[in-house]
Write a sequence for this structure.
């Protein structure tokens, strides 16, 4: 079906508006981040009149942003590795009909429930638990709390991907004498690699962006993750350097931009995968 | 293939279940138990059992009720707009012949940004002194508006930011669902003389209805926790119009160390979200269990 | 036999380890401090103390809410991780009530009259009269900031009463796009901190001497009505916009903390003591809000004597003089009035006068909660959601509910 010319123009216009609306704030952040300090006073022009990386160097020199990036990477990757290892195995068992045991229904239900319950309900007890265990000066509380978010997500999504594989392949391999472990590692895992990638990227981002648990569990500035450092750039005590805030925002975006550029298909498969399947 | 694989199943699933149990069962029992006590973290005496005092206090506290009301209203409005706009954009993008891929990718950016970054970027743009938005209004001789401190605008400012961030999410999921509708159904409808609207009403919508429900429920679950944006932009003000439940619990529990009272609020919040998401739980759980028992 | 032998061996090893740790390790003192310039100050002066006392000093810089959490959490451990903790002055009642700090007076500390009395009083429990639990490390008090050009354009002097401030705001507001008076009216800590000076100038307060809630007194109503009039002849901004608007000459006046405007030796706006009078004829009340950073020694420190010694060192006149270039505000009269320093930092005289005539926020461990609900109701009032009377009555009810 063809649209009339005015109709097509109107459609283009609406789409253009939607794009401007969606992308402008991100453009604005970039454009503030690269202006010289002197340009950030008074009314601002739409396009930068100057170019400088001083906000970025400020962040690294004065705000130890490098340490924050390192912390974020450590926490994110540790949480990712552990939750993938745990979550994959668990999802596989839950997805396969040939594994039958009493707790299975309860496990499924609990994993689903954890996706729904509000994080703040867990935060306070965990805070006291970690404090009593003397762990608050380490990264362990943060990593564990990210496991709590990521594992249910991974399990729930991976079940969908495992279910999409016919169980018959495993059955015939089993007849040939392969053990359960061999089936899982050699036959099943390679086939769910695309789904696995998607889920891994999304879990990475969840950890990378996480703020509530970090705000409660992280105590020393030396342990700050990027969202925490960003939020302290705008504190009550000192005047806010908006150029620094914008530059920090740009840096927080880097891994996400990389994923969008190089792994968009995985990303979209992941986002639209398990969540909306029946 | 009827070996004894139960041991293997337990071995494989136990690490995940162990971590989840320790990290979730303990906290849930903890808040249930201490919600019945007057546990104050800095107190020098042990917590006393007070039965339902905390709950009674909670429901008599107008600020809690306000936070509850705000959260529910915010969730309803945000989800309504996000899903509706997401659907409209999905229809729009679908009607183009070329460029769908690129559009899909580019519009995803807001959804993927850290909420903290999102809040700060918008704070820069909403500033009442030299903010861009008030600058634009100034060109038309309007404003300036104190978006985040004016009682008429603060709630909606945060709402708009949330809609900005998550409309692309709804768009993406609905767009993906629309891709799965067989083209033949549209052709058949066109032969029957169905116009654009009728095609949407009788072909598109029934096909993606299930997905619409799922997206809606997912957004409800996430929006109900709203904290980051509020904590950075308004701290619940002005006139408590942007206070949310998570923020209320954060203040009482984390800032004021009133563990017992905050636990009661956590229990209430948990119950409400369970009620709101009951449909999601039932549908997902049944489908999974069916598949697992196949 | 074997068992006993291995047990003995283990004991010997532990003993050796412990004794070597005792012998070789000099004492290590840990300071939990508020991040930023305070940390720089301590790091700049600590070397001397380390040498003289054969110890090592580590400074942890923490953000405001984290600092309080961390101190509170650590206080429950039998062996504390900190030897000195830095405390925002409104936390003092909460901290002393929970018995977290060492009683300095009992440790043999005698009060130093060189401290500005209003600062020294903050570290005592009960406030002002009791034993000393903490010493003022860094001074601060809110001031009135103004743009001299804007005042001049309205032919106005720096106001010394709130009626005067309102008159200027009326004269300035709306002319050439100028803003009269800028309030910091965000819910929570900002609006309470911004309103308290007005309340005090009118002779009101949150509590009376017997801890009856008095936020609905006639004085409080008058103060809030004037505050709303100030807003009507001005604007409600967040801190960053307040500072830039007053500094750039877009707005006439606001209250604020000195560090927002003053960096190094210069200020980007004019400054004066906050008006303590309602109008020209009324009596003068102390109205500036004091906000000192104190230092105390946790009860569970492993080195009580050394820690107290370090505390006196860090709050000494010598340290405060050395810290001045980093932007630290003194708490000692001798430093404020030091001739060389006050020539270098011309705002010292104003700060001293304002500190001497300052008020403290109500001394109750429940202040955090009270500030929260008071902030909500003040926000209700300035937004027009509630009338002044209703908002203050509701605030009273909510505060009474908290202290009950």
């Amino acid at each position: 079906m063809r649209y009339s010319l005015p109709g097509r123009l109107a459609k283009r216009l609406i789409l253009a508006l939607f794009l401007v609306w969606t992308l402008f704030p991100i453009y604005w952040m970039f454009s503030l981040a690269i202006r010289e300090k002197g340009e950030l006073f008074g009314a601002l022009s739409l396009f930068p009149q100057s170019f400088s990386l001083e906000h970025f160097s400020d962040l690294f020199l004065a705000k130890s942003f490098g340490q924050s990036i390192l912390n974020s990477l450590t926490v994110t990757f540790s949480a990712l590795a552990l939750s993938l290892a745990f979550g994959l195995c668990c999802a596989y068992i839950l997805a396969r009909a040939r594994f039958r045991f009493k707790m299975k229904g309860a496990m499924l239900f609990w994993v689903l429930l954890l996706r729904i319950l509000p994080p703040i309900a867990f935060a306070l007890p965990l805070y006291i638990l970690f404090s009593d265990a003397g762990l608050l000066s380490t990264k362990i509380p943060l990593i564990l709390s990210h496991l709590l978010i990521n594992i249910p997500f991974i399990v729930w999504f991976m079940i969908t991907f495992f279910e999409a594989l016919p169980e018959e392949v495993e059955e015939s391999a089993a007849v040939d004498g392969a053990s359960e472990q061999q089936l899982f590692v050699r036959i099943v895992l390679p086939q769910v690699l695309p789904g696995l990638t998607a889920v891994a990227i999304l879990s990475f981002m969840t950890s990378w962006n996480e703020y509530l648990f970090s705000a409660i569990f992280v105590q020393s500035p030396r342990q700050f993750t990027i969202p925490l450092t960003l939020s302290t750039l705008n504190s009550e005590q000192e005047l806010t350097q908006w150029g620094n805030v914008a530059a920090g925002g740009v840096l927080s975006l880097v891994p996400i931009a990389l994923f969008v550029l190089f792994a968009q298909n995985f990303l979209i498969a992941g986002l639209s995968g398990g969540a909306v399947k029946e | 293939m009827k070996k004894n694989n139960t041991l293997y199943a337990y071995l494989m699933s136990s690490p995940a279940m162990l971590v989840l149990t320790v990290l979730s069962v303990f906290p849930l029992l903890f808040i249930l138990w201490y919600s019945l006590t007057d546990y104050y973290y800095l107190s020098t005496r042990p917590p006393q059992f007070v039965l339902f005092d905390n709950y009674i206090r909670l429901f008599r506290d107008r600020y809690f009720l306000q936070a509850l009301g705000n959260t529910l209203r915010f969730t309803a409005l945000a989800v309504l707009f996000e899903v509706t706009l997401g659907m409209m954009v999905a229809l729009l993008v679908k009607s183009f012949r070329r460029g769908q891929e690129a559009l899909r990718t580019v519009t995803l950016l807001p959804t993927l940004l850290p909420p903290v970054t999102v809040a700060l970027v918008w704070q820069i743009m909403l500033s009442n002194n030299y903010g861009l938005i008030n600058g634009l209004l100034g060109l038309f001789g309007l404003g300036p508006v104190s978006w985040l401190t004016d009682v008429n605008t603060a709630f909606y400012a945060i709402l708009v930011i949330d809609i900005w961030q998550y409309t692309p999410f709804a768009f993406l999921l609905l767009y993906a669902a629309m891709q799965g509708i067989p083209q033949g159904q549209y052709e058949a409808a066109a032969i029957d003389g169905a116009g654009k609207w009728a095609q949407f009403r009788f072909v598109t919508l029934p096909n993606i209805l299930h997905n619409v429900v799922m997206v809606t429920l997912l957004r409800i679950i996430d929006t109900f926790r709203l904290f980051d944006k509020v904590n950075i932009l308004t701290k619940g003000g002005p006139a408590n119009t942007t206070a949310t439940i998570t923020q209320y619990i954060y203040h009482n529990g984390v800032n004021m160390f009133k563990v017992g009272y905050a636990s009661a609020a956590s229990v209430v919040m948990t119950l409400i979200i369970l009620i709101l998401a009951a449909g999601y739980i039932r549908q997902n759980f049944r489908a999974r269990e069916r598949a697992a028992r196949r | 036999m074997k068992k006993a032998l291995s047990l003995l061996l283990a004991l010997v090893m532990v003993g050796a380890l412990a004794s070597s740790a005792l012998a070789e390790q000099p004492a290590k003192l840990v300071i939990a401090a508020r991040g930023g310039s305070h940390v720089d100050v301590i790091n700049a002066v600590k070397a001397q103390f380390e040498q003289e006392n054969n110890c090592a000093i580590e400074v942890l810089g923490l953000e405001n809410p984290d600092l309080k959490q961390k101190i509170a959490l650590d206080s429950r451990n039998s062996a504390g991780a900190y030897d000195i903790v830095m405390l925002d002055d409104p936390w003092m009642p909460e901290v002393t009530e929970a018995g977290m700090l060492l009683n300095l007076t009992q440790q043999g500390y005698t009060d130093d009259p060189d401290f500005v009395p209003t600062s020294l009083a903050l570290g005592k429990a009960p406030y002002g009269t009791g034993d000393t639990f903490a010493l003022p490390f860094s001074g601060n008090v809110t001031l009135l900031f103004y743009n001299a050009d804007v005042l001049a354009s309205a032919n106005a002097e720096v106001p010394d009463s709130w009626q005067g401030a309102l008159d200027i705001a009326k004269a300035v507001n709306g002319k050439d796009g100028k803003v009269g008076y800028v309030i910091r009216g965000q819910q929570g800590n900002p609006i309470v901190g911004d309103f308290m000076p007005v309340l005090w100038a009118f002779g009101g307060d949150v509590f009376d001497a017997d801890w009856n809630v008095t936020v609905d007194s006639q004085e409080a109503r008058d103060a809030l009505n004037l505050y709303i009039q100030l807003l009507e002849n001005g604007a409600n901004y967040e801190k960053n916009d307040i500072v830039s608007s007053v500094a750039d000459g877009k707005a006439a006046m606001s209250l604020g903390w000195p560090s927002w405007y003053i960096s190094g030796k210069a200020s980007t706006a004019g400054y004066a003591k906050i008006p303590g009078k309602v109008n020209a004829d009324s009596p003068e009340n102390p109205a500036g809000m004091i906000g000192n950073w104190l230092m105390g020694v946790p009860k569970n420190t492993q080195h009580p004597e050394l820690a107290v010694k370090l505390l006196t060192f860090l709050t000494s006149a010598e340290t405060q003089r050395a810290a001045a270039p980093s932007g630290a505000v003194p708490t000692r009269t001798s430093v404020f009035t030091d001739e060389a320093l006050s020539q270098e930092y011309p705002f010292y005289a104003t700060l001293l006068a304002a500190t001497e005539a300052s008020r403290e926020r109500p001394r109750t461990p429940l202040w955090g909660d009270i500030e929260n609900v008071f902030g909500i109701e003040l926000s209700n009032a300035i937004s027009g959601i509630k009338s002044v009377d209703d908002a203050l009555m509701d605030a009273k009810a909510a505060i009474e509910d908290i202290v009950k």
The CA atoms of residues 84 and 211 of chain B lie 13 Å apart. The two ends of chain B are 15 Å apart (CA to CA).
